[in-house]
Amino acid sequence: MRSGRLWPVHLLLAVGAAAMVMPFFWQVLTSLKTFTEATRTPPVWIPSFEWSNFAKVLAEGPFLQQFGNTVVMTVGRTLAQLLFCSLAAYAFARLRFPGRNVIFIALLSVLMVPGQLFLIPQYQIVQGLGWLNTLPGLIAPGMFSAFGTFMMRQFFMTLPAEVEEAARLDGANPLRIFWSVMLPLARPGLLALGVLTVLWSWNDLMWPLIVNTDPEQMPLSAGLSALQGEHMTEYPVLMAGSLMASAPIIVVFIVMQKQLIQGIAFTGSK
Amino acid sequence: MSTVERAAPARAAAHPATRRRLRDREWVWGYAMIAPLVLGLGVFYLWPVVQSVYYSFTEWTLFGDSSWVGLSNYEKLFTDAAYGKALRNTFLYGGLSLLGIPISIAVAALLNTKGLKLVSFYRTLYFLPVVTMPTAVAMIWTWLYNGDYGLINYALSLVGIEGTSWIANPSTALYALVLVGVWTQIGYNAVIFMAGLQSIPSHLYEAASIDGAGRVRQFFKVTLPLLSPSVFFVSVLSVINGLQMFDLVYLMFRKGNPAREDTQTVVSLFFSRAFEEGAKGYAAAMAVVLMLITLLLTVVQFRMQKRWVHYA
To answer: Membrane topology per the record (chain B) (predicted)?
Structure first.
């Protein structure tokens, strides 16, 4: 098909894309309006660039503190998952030990269970450790993932066995082979799992709502929800807050789009 | 293994004892390397399932004591009107969220057009709602749906339709929620469908076009049947995710919203019973039933796939 005849495809895609993007456009526009402008009919299309909405979000609540909490939670969960999942995944993919398949399938059974069945006992564990309203409490259960282990195991299984054999003949132990030979080769898999985990962690809402009720200890997802409760009708302020909270992950997505798409295509191929 | 061994026979012969020792201790390394994960998943996920099932047969006092009550939590589910409503909403939501699938297929098929430029640009735009924090999504749509100043009602007023307070009106709130849910899923599903489309061999299209099939006919006779495994996967996932609906419900139908009572889902009801009202035993029973429902629906979907899913 000649590219000149592609304009109907472009037209359809552009109309769809406009529908996808319009809410964000309205969010940005509203965040720059005064309250009076935001509530005017017909709508104001050129705002008076009321940057004070952003200043208000930063000044009034513990926004920056919550931003920091979100970063710590996201980085903590992601690094832990990358380490624990790939370590176990390598053993499941390559080492022989009694009960290997039974244990692996038992772990995968976690994927079939709805999250609500974990939440009450998880809350009790965190409470018992005295970790309510702390960052460790926020991070802990999200450090381990059956999905991540499955994904990394599939990845390791695609790598040729020859690369390890050389190191093995040199007398390297499995941990050493994992760390210096396999992990560097697993970079694409690690990046895909990493970006999926970052995305899930940054946006996670229910667990933070359960364990961290103190606004100072909340991540942005829960903190923003509290902000909405307080500033019910101050839409420009709410839009400014939601924009600042979601912008970092949108940047991560744009930078790491390829890895994220690969990770998602992986979930689709299984 | 064979090529390397042939390449380095001298080295292998030099350390036969070392090699055997390492092989013998392979299981120690194996257990050591899976230990952190097994411990973490065991403590935070596997054992909690057992505990939750046990809790579903108990009742909790405000002081955190619990006592065995047999099946009474499950019996209560049958008479709890709020639960009945939540179950109905959850099914309705799970079913209606399948409406996004044809849209996603269309988007994927368009993006897969041969020779199309700007594909990754479009894909980024369609994907934005997928990566945006649900809290932000809920705030944006709450504002768009606003009865007095919302952009949607303004747009409708231009064509002479008088809108309502979409998410505060019990008769529209659930559908307003479905629309937001579909909006956040289209990009994700389209990516899976694009991967499925790209795996269809192009010679099939050539053969079809030699047989005189037009583009529309090719889509229905070649594309759709070969895409059916992806469609099946996305449907199973959509139903499972639909049954799990929580974030947007919690955020858009807050206390004081007149539609709140009519829009709760099983998971949002679970959340309030377990963590706001402290009825952990009853909430655990709700979770167990939801698991059974999810399993049942998944089994039904797998059974039905024989009728319409074609594996190449």
So the answer is: Multi-pass membrane protein
Judge whether residue B94 has pLDDT over 50: yes
List the beta strands (DSSP E) in chain B.
Answer: 58-60, 66-68
CB of B126 closer than 8 Å to CB of A22: no
Residue pLDDT, tens place only, A224-236:
888 887 777 789 9
pLDDT above 70: residue A220:
yes
In this predicted structure, the answer to whether residue B157 has a pLDDT above a threshold of 90 is: yes
Which ipTM was obtained for this model? 0.93
Task: Collect all residues of chain B within an 8 Å Cβ-Cβ radius of residue A1.
Answer: 113-115
State yes or no: pLDDT of B67 exceeds 60: yes
Q: How many domains does chain A have?
A: 1
User: Which residue range forms the structural domain that includes residue A124?
Assistant: 62-222+247-269
If you count them, how many residues does chain A have? 270
Give the three-class secondary structure for A212: coil
Model confidence at B3, pLDDT cuts 50, 70, 90, reads: very low
Tell me if A239 sits within 8 A of A30, measured CB to CB.
yes
Q: Which of residues 170-209 of A touch B (CB under 8 A)?
A: 170-171, 173-175, 178, 199, 202-203, 205-206, 209
Contact between residue B270 and residue B55 where contact means Cβ atoms under 8 Å apart: no
The DSSP element (H or E) to which A54 belongs, if any, is helix A52-60
Q: Please name the residue that has the structure tokens 């302020």.
A: A237
Can you say whether residue B230 is alpha, beta or left, with left for phi > 0 and alpha for psi between -120 and 50 degrees? alpha
Instruction: Retrieve residue A186's tokens.
Output: 């697993």
So what's the pLDDT on residue B18?
Answer: 53
pLDDT at A129 over 70: yes
Q: Are B287 and A114 a contacting pair at CB < 8 A?
A: yes
Nearest residue of A to residue B18 by CA position?
A171
C-alpha distance from A186 to closest chain B C-alpha (Å): 17
Most distant pair of Cα atoms in chain B: their distance: 89
Residue A171 resides in a domain:
yes
Is A229 among the domain residues? Answer: no
Residue B70, burial from CB neighbour count under 10 angstroms (0-12, 13-18, 19+): exposed
Average pLDDT for residues A192-209, to the nearest whole number?
A: 95
pLDDT score of B13 more than 80: no
Please list, in sequence order, all residues whose beta carbon lies within 8 angstroms of the beta carbon of residue A243, skipping any fewer than 6 positions away. Answer: A27, A28, A31, B136
- Look up the CATH number of the domain holding residue A204: 1.10.3720.10
Tell me whether residues A91 and B55 touch, CB distance under 8 A.
no
pLDDT in tens, B225-245: 999 989 999 998 899 899 999
Structural domain includes residue A21: no
Tell me the pLDDT band of A268, cut-offs 50, 70 and 90: low
Instruction: Note whether residue A132 is domain-resident.
Output: yes
